[in-house]
Fold:
Amino acid sequence: MDSITLKHIEKGKYQIFLILVLAALTFVSSIFGLGLGSSSSLSMGKTWKIVLSDMWVFLINLDTVFDNLSYNISCLFSSCESISLLHGLNREGTHLQNSIIYEWRLPRILAAVIGGIALAVAGSLMQGCLGNPLVSPLTLGVASGAALGAALAIVLGFTILSVPALAIVANSFVFSLIVVAVIIQLGKIRSISAESYILVGIAITFICGAIVSTMQYFASDAQLSQLAHWSFGSLSRPNMENVAFMGLVVLGILPTAIRWSWDLNAVSMGGDEFAISTGVNPSSLRKNILIISALMTSVIIAFTGLIGFVGLAAPHMSRLIVGNDFRKLIPASGIFGAFLMIFADTLGRTLFAPIVIPVGVMLSIIGGPFFMYLLLRRRG
Amino acid sequence: MLNVSGLNFSWGKKRVLEDVNFKINSNEVVSILGINGAGKSTLIKCLNGILKPNTGKIEVISKPDGAAEYVLRDISSLDLVSISRTTSYVPQSIRPSFSMDVFDVVLLGRRPHIKWRISDSDREKVSNTLRYLDLEDFAFRKFDNLSGGERQRVVIAKAIAQDPNLYLFDEPTSDLDLRNQIQIMKCIRSLISESETPKSALIAIHDINIAARYSDRIILLDNGSIKAFGSPSEVLTVENIAEVFGVSSSISYESGNYIRIVVDDEIKDCEE
Structure:
């Protein structure tokens, strides 16, 4: 085989190796994150012992687990309280320890992983299809739509779903999708360019912002503080069912995203005309990408509030490792995003424990300087 | 190879191309000359689906999936992937939003032929193309870090890796120095002449001497329609040059059937 061919294969393998190392690092940090916390009765060793013994109990008592699972499923149709899958079995941890691990730390870490993957992948997709390095998943008005939905629920009490626990979540999810639908409809009127998409997104952000400001002007102090609280991205809100929902949506979308890697390569490399002569339709690609990244972003921020930085920075950081081939950039961004989120969140809840700093704030504080360092080092 | 008949194109109310008809044979280099705004780029872009003509028929030779013989097919009946298997467009210059390795840029030429996985034969095609254009030292450099001439060669390499029948070049030499201009045109020339499969090139270009030197035939576009179509010495006459470009010139005939056009330092008034 040709020496250039061999070198290309070598380079590809090396990049995949780097992605796997990053994945391993992310896995290790999430296990550490599970063991870290402010509870004095739960050291890292104790946490692992409980989790490992539970996994063992789970494996040797599959019949009881199955009974509990079917009981839980039957609960979906009647009003009984759902129970733990390991209910009635002899377990290592106390009730309190179990509840800290499985109801507080585990959903938090899973939300960090899923949120990081979704936001970073959405960021890399949007940067690619709009050909602009400044774009993040929140650029096209997804965030402003979510904020509008949340404000409507908090200030005016206008809710789409009447379940109190999910009212704000459903509102911000639906309104961010409405905003994106409007943008795509505007795009259909004339097949608009990448720049116009960004400008329309900015215009809509201003419009939604104005409506939210108006509501804030007339809101009570309690409402204002609730709204401000919502806008800090935080991982403490989603529970295990929320996390499962987020995970299913993201998992369903990811393969589609990776299928468009070649098209994204063509568009981000040479622009629209170059892409067309490579057999890619750039306007339909942009529309599809906008839909799936909006879906992923809004399902995450509906549960967590605004987390913007990871979607901007993780794709750029991954680009420094694997280059701009989207077949590798999409997985690398996802893993890098998950890593950043776990790292920032774990730091945020241990640094000044028991005070928890929201992950959105933490990400920007530690990620910002790191991001600048990486970019400046490359230019120099 | 390429049949264009009754082609009309307008931007809103402005007519850009008016009843354009021509045919290109296999293994032929054809240049399109004309002033700025004559419709050169528009014509090129109509031929590969970037722009949709208002009326007219464009037929390009291609091999349908699984067929052994080449057939002429109307491009309005083909999707973008099928069009890009048979035609390849080289823009004047590309400004990447995110740069890639030269090898990966050229690999994009294989995109119309593959689904997701790159086979070894795709990689070999890319390697061979890089060697053919003297780009092997740049294979793992970033496209961003290359000079204008090198970039142009990379984009041409991508077009070659695409293995089309019809190459469309939009002012391939405009951004280049003298040496690079000659190198690019020689490369296009040998690419077409040496090919065993039917391949032709259509080049929108400004330099009339380079066009005369490297083309088999020349299309002279004037105000959106074809003023003259034929061999360089038939098309590039003192009268045609005066009428289309509004400059006076003298033409000398060199050995080997080449002509050299010397443009005088005088702008012809339209009234004359």
Observations:
- The longest helix of chain B spans residues 178-193.
- The radius of gyration of chain B is 19 Å.
- Chain B has one domain: 2-94+163-267.
- Chain B touches chain A through 45 residues (CB under 8 Å).
